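Predict both folds.
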Amino acid sequence: MFAGGHDASVLAVASGQCDAGFAYDTMVDSQLIEQGSIQPGQIATVWKSETIAGSPVAIADDLPADVKRKLTTAFQEKANQDYLKANGFCSGECTLGDEDSWGYRPVDDALYDGVREVCDVTKNKSCTEA
């Protein structure tokens, strides 16, 4: 079943709705404990995958070169904690995304090897069906 999110996956296991679930390790190790939603040790980690890459930002090939260059520059040079802090967009803790992400960086296909590993291990139909 698709629980709806990392927290929901852990809570579905905790309530007995599921025997196992996938979630960020911080959900089990700290976040839901700090929220009082689960108790320390209530959920056991049985396997940890390699990094699961987040959703990429992609630019259409058919955009004009100057537009692609401007978008790439904006994401790689301005959509990050350092730029946002230096330019007064945030102060103190400046988190981007679900985890403590710094910002956007160029990546290659190998970043998605963790997703492929999960697909290999689970044989889940969502890995092979369009």
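Second protein follows, with its predicted structure tokens after the sequence.
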Amino acid sequence: MIFGLLSTLKMTSKMKANNENSYDLIVVGSGACGATIAREVSATGKRVLVLERGKSTNMRETAFSMISVMDEVSLGKGLSTARALTTGGSTSLYFGVANYPNLDTYRDLGIDLDKSFDWACDQLPLAPLPDSIIGNQTIRLRDSAQSLGYDWLKNDMMVDQSLLSSNYSYEAKWKAKSYMDDALQNGCTLVNQALVFEVIKDRNRAVGVKYLDKSNRGSKSVEVFASKIVIAAGELATPLLLRRAGIQDVAKHGFFCDPGYAIYGLVPNLEATDTFVGSMSCVIEDDIELGDANVPRALHRLMMLSKFKLRHWWKYSQSIGIGVKVKDEICGSMGDDGTLSKKVSSKELEKLAKGEKVAIKILENAGAKHVFNFGLSSAGHVGGMVEIGTHVNSNLETTLENMYVCDGSILPESERITPTVSLVSLAKYLSDKLNDCL
């Protein structure tokens, strides 16, 4: 007991001696969750520090801008996913599709998300896009799929339609950076190029974090302290931070990643223009989802160049595409350095092949020629490594006291959806709890 008291006094003394490095709340990550929490907690006058691994970038949807923030992460042989390392996280590069959480799923886990979900729906721009905006290639896919009997329907999109002056605008998509801007106006502190590598502990309490400040040449280690710490570093980085903090059974069963690929063709005289990806989709048998993969011109050219598809690269106005993804089982592993590895099973490959067959049928019915499969190389949301009820409780607090997790890593396995609305809802839920106890 005496040694424990001395340890606590020593830690308290250290925090007072470095008051400029002491905050009410530290948030690791500035994506959908981190930015929402920073905004909501800083609005109450609390001292909030956000540590973001990437730079603060004035993003534009150009090849150079996308390459500058995109980080490709391998999930095993031939399979990878991408994230954005910048203020606002992966909402800087996402498609803007809005799916909604199953509130009963969270209720069964002890989380009443109703109020926070209503708040998110009121805050975010959520609506399907009218035909006048979705583009010729998307309409052609819809007509082809529906004529073949598939329920190819519109998704709600996170797009502020009042900002649209034409069919497409990158700026009209909601991004977490806007919430970080609000947080900064509230007095929040944002440190970019801050790579958090360790949680500082006092016995079973989290009291701070260590990060590498990489803003200048070389890097230096910095310690910061807070009453509460939220890890919102993303589904790929958070599990490793938790394991380093002593929560060893993270990812013990592996992970899921919803593998898939895109299939493209060319339709003469289509007059395709930049449009919003994923604005329509359908689910067919065996957990196979198809959706429009009609990416904007800049991303399309990067993709086609990577496969040396010069005909498709040149003829964007004729391009038409469908994405195929399937639900995979939780398996694989995470190494001590955070490296992820899994193999797509034969059962999942069969599902993908079935989806490919339907996609090609829809494309050819739409008049597409020169159809090709981009190949099994991409994955969607990675999850299943951090479990509510095991690694975090219903308050999203970890087994390490005063440390919370709020990002895509905690989404239940059954919630295989585009997660942004769920993440903002969970972030609001946690923000209210933090404001009650800080």
